[in-house]
Amino acid sequence: MLIKNPKGWEIPESAATSESAYLNRRQLMKGAAAGTILAAAGPVLGGVAQAATEDDPSAHLYPVKQNLRYRLDRDLTPEKINSTYNNFYEFGSHKEIWRAAQRLPVRPWTVRIDGMVENEMEIGIDDLLAKMPLEERLYRHRCVEAWSMTIPWSGFELSHLIKMVQPLGSAKYVEFRTFVDKSFASGQRQFWYPWPYVEGLTMEEAMNEMTFMVTGTYGHPALPQHGAPIRIAVPWKYGFKSAKSIVSITFTDKRPKTFWEELQDAEYGFWANVNPAFDHPRWTQKTERVLGTDKRVPTLIYNGYGEFVADLYKDMPQDRALFI
Ligand code: MTE
Questions:
Q1: What is the C-alpha radius of gyration for the chain, rounded to an integer number of angstroms?
Q2: What's the 29 CA to ligand 1 centre distance in angstroms?
Q3: How far apart, in whole angstroms, are the C-alpha atoms of residue 278 and residue 258?
């Protein structure tokens, strides 16, 4: 992104927990009281997840059943890496924001759903969770900065929420907004960024089965650094399209002007579909560093999700604008 530490991806392997630690923990949490198990998991997770999930009123909902339709060609990223290497500019423009992000108050939390819909609403996150069919999906996550992770997200398909609010035929886009509060989000004191963080999708993209609202990670409620209590995951696009800690979802007939477009539209466009054939102006997109390993692997068009999404774009010019 704009401010980049070129060595930032070099997290030593020794800092990682293995995938089996996550899987064991998932098994353990299934049958036992969450308090006891979280205490046991504390040392494994280095306390990163523990503090954030202990008091979370949705903790009892997780882990949720995995949807086996979405498979991976690579190992899960160790939770320790996924939880300590993040982009969340509200808490600073570097990768180690996870400590600062613990100041994010994740309750009470309401999401306003408005604009061109039959049923406008303002709904508390726990009421929303009660209405949505939760599942776990293993998704790849490819940042525009050419690093990637693979993450067990929990949450629900955005299409379920869209059906609940019934958009009008005139709605063409969906806009997602993050909170603004400088009192705890120190990054928002950096006045040169165009707060709030805004992202957007077309209605067709928002209705696509891959578009997922994330409320949990690694079998527990999402951590603040991941954009708790609710963020989006749009895995065929660069990671900046996946807005964190969402407070409003607006249906509109105007294309949203996004946070990164506002800053630098030649580098971070509206579409931002992953494509190794179109380099970022300042670095290659042909390959990506797989965090938690020493591998650099070829990047795949639509981040490997072409079978689900390529049709969305078949009638559009296949040029640079679609892929930056
Ligand atoms: N959402 C908000 N509100 N603020 C941000 O700075 N960064 C984006 C995206 N969503 C960002 C955000 C970027 S650049 C990426 S790569 C992903 O979040 C990072 O998600 P992760 O930290 O869970 O890997």
A1: 19
A2: 28
A3: 21
Dist CA 265 CA 174 (whole Å) = 19
Question: What distance lies between CA 280 and its chain's CA centroid?
Answer: 21
What domains can be seen in the chain, in order of their start residue? 65-323 (3.90.420.10)
- Output the pTM of the full model: 0.89
Q: Which atom of ligand 1 is nearest to the CA of 86?
A: 22
Query: Helices in 124-233 by DSSP H: which ranges?
Result: 125-131, 158-165, 203-207
Q: Distance, CA 118 to ligand 1 centroid (Å)?
A: 30
Mutation test residue for ligand 1: of 242, 267, 324, the one with most atoms within 8 Å of CB: 242
- Distance, CA of 112 to CA of 246 (rounded, Å): 9
Q: Identify the residues whose C-beta falls under 6 Å from ligand 1.
A: 1, 86-90, 141, 143, 178, 197, 226-227, 239-240, 242-245
Taking the CB of residue 284, how many other CB atoms lie within 10 A of it? 11
Per-residue pLDDT of the chain (324 residues; tens, 9 = 90+): 754 433 322 333 333 334 544 555 555 444 333 333 333 333 335 565 665 577 899 999 999 999 999 999 899 999 999 999 999 999 999 999 999 999 999 999 999 999 999 999 999 999 999 999 999 999 999 999 999 999 999 999 999 999 999 999 999 999 999 999 999 999 999 999 999 999 999 999 999 999 999 999 999 999 999 999 999 999 999 999 999 999 999 999 999 999 999 999 999 999 999 999 999 999 999 999 999 999 999 999 999 999 999 999 999 999 999 999
Q: Which of 225, 244, 263 gets mutated to test ligand 1 (max ligand atoms within 8 A of its CB)?
A: 244
Q: Which residues contact 128 (CB under 8 A, 6 or more apart)?
A: 111, 161, 230
